[in-house]
From TrEMBL, chain B:
Keyword Protein transport: no
Amino acid composition bias (Basic and acidic residues), ranges on this chain: 576-605
Signal peptide: 1-25
The protein, known as: GPI transamidase component PIG-T-like
Family matches, as InterPro entries: PIG-T (IPR007245)
Lineage: Eukaryota, Metazoa, Hemichordata, Enteropneusta, Harrimaniidae
């Protein structure tokens, strides 16, 4: 009997120990699960601030409505309400966007307001005799002309007085259309607004390109200007390939002051411009010009022009600015190669002796106006005439920043800009296209950023980047609403903010920090620790659980017994 | 006391009164010069100097728009980062003062950059950071490695060299000085440097800058100095002076079979082909003072002019070639020929020179010792000593010992900035008076720090460089120096005049190379593996102890389980029948094993 009790004592002791072991195993497993796992998770996880992913998808599929306020004024003739109504009807029919949804998610909406000329306007029309004066005076009285709007005067009586062939586009935001017949006048008004003031085709194309639409063929018009940039560096360089025989001088400071500054002043809202100039010596052309014996001159043909730029490039870049540089070079050919002329594709002499390189700048050849007898005392002094040079460069600069080239049309006369070099409606066009381009680019940047961050899970998203993304999203949304209200000025500035914020977020170096940290390396580091620890913990837990289960079963059986 | 000394030092340091040699004629001026001096050691020293002066006010950003001779790329940088003065040198090799005397412009091995920022600069730290990165791009040098750990603000050693108010020039908060002793200099630095010249390397003296020849030399140094100067004698028109210089030392006796003969063709591969058309002066100066009767020298062709300068207790003679008046159709094949082979004479070291080295052994402690030699037999010499040491060489100020001829001396003035790990280096700047004909020893001990494995540079086993110590002083006998009037950097001014009394020089000591404890770089993964294994073993045994118990096993009981089954299968394959003989043989062992053999007790049993 005593033996039995002794045995049972040992058994009991053993059982107690087994209970202890089971509890130990379970508590270790519990600790690993409750403390170890969260700790590991917390210490190895990357910080990712939350991004407005759904809103980004929302703005990516948003339709851009661009409202353009158009005022059509009927001058002279029959200005009865009836007539105005029928004009309104005609316009409602003709002044409809051609590009709605075709190229991209862009729709122009024209808000047409038809009225008759008021007293002061009629007076101006009566008193003035030239189109130029008319344009200027109408601008002075006009209070409705806000940024991005357009005003068309339909001249029923005065077209003869002002010699308006069909359409005259003024310097400001006005156009003058002649027409006795309201229907054709309405068609002309629609044409002016759609093709010139708004230039739907080009605006839609630029918007589409920025939104990521691929063009199958190269398009000169949309490739020429530099896209979405907050500013430009303008560098004027005088190239003197042989300073030993030519002393080239230019009064660039004066040239810029009188020809370029008025232009840049009107564009201050649009972009920041920094202007500087330099003189480069011993800077020759990489291409040897061919001799044209019949005309006693040297020529460069169109095919060789792209090769001219490369050797000069080394001295053109800027180290202090990230804005794109637009270069304007004046090349003074050496006496051994002058006069030097540029030939176009058809073999004709280019009249201004200059050419333009898209998104890069322009080059002008400046031949020394020496007498052709050839008896020149060396060194020859060449005084560069700033007027001819700046006129060429100004027209090139207009194209490079995105002012569209106007097609010539016999029925159409366009007032040349004043000394500012740009008309108000051209500036409006620039602001509008830049707004559309900015908003499309920013949207595209944000969606690719959100896609990238979604794909690569271990990229850190810092709070300030998330903040930039929020700012960009908010600015894009407000740009859309401003465009819808026809408030161009506000829309432009908010689109500027959008692109700035989205680019800052996208190009932030902190995003790249953990990008190249592959998964396999992580496991190489984890395995030596986790494998030898997790296997015994798992095994003992399983065993402990089994033991407890069997004990329970035993207890139940014992109870039943 | 320190203040008093400070004032004295200020007087000792160049105090600038600037006067232009000529009146205002052109807003831009360009001068090119080449100076050649045969050294007593047999080497030939050539120093090119290109000076561009532009009438522009550094304090007025709007004037930095239209560039002519002045390079636009550098001008824009000076303007954007509101630089008052900029001094950059990129040097390969060490200038041996005791053998070669004093150079026209001295520079430490590697890269050196010191910049004075304008008073209007808003955030100098940030501007400095951006500036070094931009300069790094402009000169293709690793200047972007300049950060807070190598940047110091010495109070006395580097004063503005251009026009500056007295109040500004003693305020070293506007100064940043940094060196990169490890920097290698080669053609990729020469090309952008040449691009800053108005004639590039297409005409004038710069056509002699042939990288193939220049980098085959004993010493090579590229320098860029920008400082504000005056454009007219009354100093009403401010101007900006850019001085680009290139020094190179060739060992001619080795090339020329023992003779020191040199010619432009031998040194640079071609003769001079006239001047740069824009240069107002284009001169070559040859030092012919060393003409001895024992070894006659012939200079061909004859110099167009000779200039004799007597100053500071010595006379020098220079042959001058004016390339502006040279017929550019034929090359100037300048050559200097000796009658006999070069005689390696007793070396006459210059008045002051410096030698620095590492003391101690092992990878724990060490010391830096610097010897300052004053060979002047009559006059004592006041010098400014500047030593900058990276943070991982931990200096101890209490170990600083300065002795002159074995007698301890005290510095007249001292500024010590202790380093901070990973943020700031050590700086020691002192003013010392060196007695006549003496050797002064400066010794200081250091500890070597352990670096984190990511802090080692690529190729860590080379070691770590400590930049040169800088010794600045003003000599009374300056006949062998090039410290002229400070109004102009052109050679006629550098040669000086007879009434000059103070000759400022700056010397650089050798750079030092130190070995720090360098790890095996496969270490991190090994450490991870080892640490994980140790943790796993410790955890495993602890875990076993708490969750398992040990108990004796009954030997008579047939073992069950996977292990026993596998063993029996193996035995079957081997063909061994578990027969009697085997059993009887193994009994003894089995008996022994009985008490040792343990197996885990199944919990469910």
């Amino acid at each position: 009997m005593s033996k039995v009790t002794k045995m049972s004592a040992i058994e009991r002791e053993k059982e107690d120990q087994s209970w202890q072991h089971a509890y130990a195993a379970l508590s270790i497993a519990f600790l690993c699960l409750v403390v170890g796992l969260p700790l590991w998770w917390k210490t190895t996880t990357t910080y990712r601030a939350s991004l407005p992913d759904s809103e980004i998808t929302g703005i990516a599929s948003l339709q851009t409505f661009c409202k353009i306020p158009v005022t059509v004024v009927l001058v002279g003739g029959d200005v009865s309400q009836n007539n105005l109504n029928s004009l309104q009807n005609h316009l409602d029919y003709t002044l409809v966007s051609d590009y709605s949804g075709r190229y991209s998610r862009l729709t122009f909406h024209y808000a047409v307001n038809v009225r008759s000329a008021n007293k002061r306007e009629t007076d101006v029309f009566r008193l003035k005799s030239t189109l130029k004066d008319l344009d200027a005076d109408i601008y002075l009285l006009d209070q409705e002309s806000t940024v991005g709007s357009s005003i068309v005067y339909i001249l029923q009586d005065y077209s003869g007085v002002f010699h308006v062939s069909k359409i005259h586009v003024g310097r400001y935001r006005h156009a003058f259309v002649s027409g006795q017949d309201l229907k054709s006048a309405a068609a002309l008004a629609a044409q002016v607004v759609k093709e010139l003031h708004v230039n739907e085709a080009l605006a839609a194309k630029i918007h589409g390109t920025a939104a990521g639409v691929k063009h199958t063929e190269a398009d000169v018009e949309s490739m020429r200007s530099v896209r979405s940039t907050p500013g430009y560096e303008l560098t004027f360089s005088l190239l003197n390939p042989s300073p030993d025989v030519i002393i080239a001088k230019w009064d660039i400071a004066e040239g810029i002051r009188s020809y370029l500054d008025p232009f840049l002043k009107t564009l201050t809202e649009y972009a920041d411009f920094t202007v500087n100039s330099q003189v480069l010596y011993y800077m020759g052309l990489a291409v040897t010009p061919t001799k044209d014996d019949t005309n006693k001159r040297y020529v460069l043909n169109a095919a060789s022009l792209p090769h001219l730029i490369n050797p000069v490039e080394a001295k053109l870049g800027s180290h202090v600015s990230t804005n794109p540089t637009l270069n304007f070079l004046v090349y003074v050919p050496p006496p051994s190669q002058s006069p030097l002329h540029i030939l176009n594709e058809h073999g004709d002499t280019v009249t201004n002796n200059a050419f333009l390189s898209p998104r890069w700048g322009g080059i002008m050849l400046y031949n020394s106006p020496r007498d052709t007898s050839g008896n020149v005392t060396l060194p020859d002094t060449v005084d560069v005439d700033m007027k001819t040079v700046m006129e060429v460069f100004l027209s090139q600069l207009r194209l490079l920043i995105g002012v569209p080239k106007q097609k010539s049309d016999p029925l159409l006369t366009i007032a040349s800009p004043d000394n500012t070099g740009i008309t108000h409606w051209e500036l409006d066009f620039l602001l509008r296209t830049r707004t559309l381009e900015n908003v499309a680019t920013a949207t595209l940047t944000l969606s690719s950023l959100s896609q990238l961050l979604g794909q690569i899970r271990n990229m850190v998203i810092r709070d300030d980047i998330a903040e930039q993304v929020y700012i960009a999203v908010e600015s894009i949304q407000s740009t859309h609403s401003y465009l819808k209200d026809g408030n161009m000025y506000r829309a432009f500035h908010s689109s500027k903010r959008a692109i700035q914020a989205s680019e800052t977020a996208f190009f932030d170096p902190s995003l790249l920090e953990l990008l190249y940290f592959p998964e396999d390396q992580k496991f190489a580091i984890y395995i030596p620790l986790f494998l030898p620890m997790s296997i015994p913990v798992l095994m003992s837990t399983v065993k402990a659980l089994k033991w407890i289960k069997s004990k329970r079963r035993q207890n139940k059986r014992a109870k039943r017994d | 006391m320190a203040e008093q000394v400070n004032v004295r030092v200020c007087l000792v340091i160049i105090c600038l009164v600037l006067m232009a040699p000529e009146g205002l004629s052109n807003p831009d001026k360009f001068d090119e010069e080449l100076f050649i001096r045969p050294l007593p050691s047999g080497h030939v020293y050539s120093h090119f100097q290109f000076t561009t002066t532009w009438d522009v006010d550094v304090h007025d950003p709007s004037t930095f728009a239209h560039y002519n001779f002045f390079p636009k790329s550098l001008g824009q940088i000076i303007n954007k980062y509101s630089v008052q003065e900029l001094h950059l040198s990129l040097t390969q090799g060490y200038w041996r003062h005791e053998k070669w005397g004093y150079p026209v412009s001295s520079a430490p091995p590697g890269a050196q950059l010191w910049v004075w920022f304008q008073e209007s600069t808003v955030d100098i730290e940030q501007t400095w950071k951006e500036l070094v990165n931009v300069l790094s791009g402009l000169f293709c040098a690793s200047l972007n490695f300049i950060d807070g750990t190598v940047t110091v603000k010495p109070q006395l050693s580097f004063r503005p060299q251009g026009i500056a108010t007295d109040k500004y020039s003693i305020n070293s908060t506007y100064l940043r000085y940094a060196t990169l002793p490890r920097e290698n200099v080669c053609t990729e630095n020469l090309t952008p440097w040449k691009k800053l010249l108005p004639c590039d390397s297409k005409a004038g003296l710069s056509t002699l800058l042939n990288a193939m020849q220049l980098y085959n030399a004993n010493y090579h140094s590229l320098e860029v100095h920008v400082r504000p100067v005056c454009a007219n004698p009354s100093c009403t028109i401010p101007a900006l002076e850019l001085s680009q210089s290139l020094s190179v030392v060739f060992d001619q006796p080795i090339r020329e079979y023992g003779k020191q003969d040199w010619s432009l063709k031998k040194l640079f591969g071609r003769g001079a082909r006239g001047a740069c058309p824009m240069a107002s002066t284009s001169n070559i100066y040859v030092d012919i003072s060393s003409n001895k009767t024992s070894n006659l020298v012939q200079l061909t062709p004859e110099p167009t002019d000779t200039r004799v300068v007597t100053r500071g207790g010595g006379t020098s003679t220079y042959g001058v070639y004016d390339l502006n008046n040279w017929d550019s159709s034929n090359q100037l094949m300048l050559a200097m020929k000796w009658k006999n082979k070069h005689c390696y004479d007793v070396n006459h070291p210059p008045q002051i020179h410096v030698h620095r080295f590492i003391t101690g052994y092992g990878q724990d402690k060490g010391g830096i010792t610097c010897l300052l030699f004053n060979h002047d037999t009559e006059k004592s010499q006041s010098v400014i000593y500047l030593d900058t040491v990276p943070w991982y060489i931990r200096l101890y100020l209490h170990t600083l010992k300065i002795t002159t001829n074995n007698k301890p001396i005290k510095p007249d003035w001292m500024k010590y900035i202790p380093g901070q790990d990973r943020t700031r280096g050590y700086m020691l700047e002192m003013v010392l008076t060196l007695p006549p004909d003496s050797v002064t020893t400066i010794g200081i001990d250091f500890d070597r720090a352990f670096l984190k494995w990511t802090e080692h540079p690529p190729d860590a086993n080379i070691g770590f460089h400590i930049s040169s110590a800088v010794v600045s002083t003003i000599l009374q006998h300056g006949n062998n120096t090039f410290s002229g009037q400070t109004d102009s950097r052109l050679f006629p001014s550098l040669f000086g005049s007879s009434n000059q009394k103070d000759f400022f020089i700056r010397l650089y000591s050798e750079i030092l190379l130190i070995q720090l404890p360098t790890p095996d770089f496969s270490m991190p993964y090994n450490v991870i593996c080892l640490a994980c294994t140790v943790v796993a073993i410790a955890f495993g045994s602890l875990h076993n102890l708490t969750t398992r118990s040990f108990a004796p096993v009954d030997p008579n009981k047939k073992p069950t389980g996977i292990k026993a089954k596998i063993i029996s299968v193996i035995k079957k394959i081997k063909g061994h029948k578990p027969d009697e003989t085997d059993k009887s043989k193994n009994t003894d062992e089995k008996v022994d094993n009985k008490c040792e053999t343990t197996e885990e007790v199944k919990k469910d049993r």
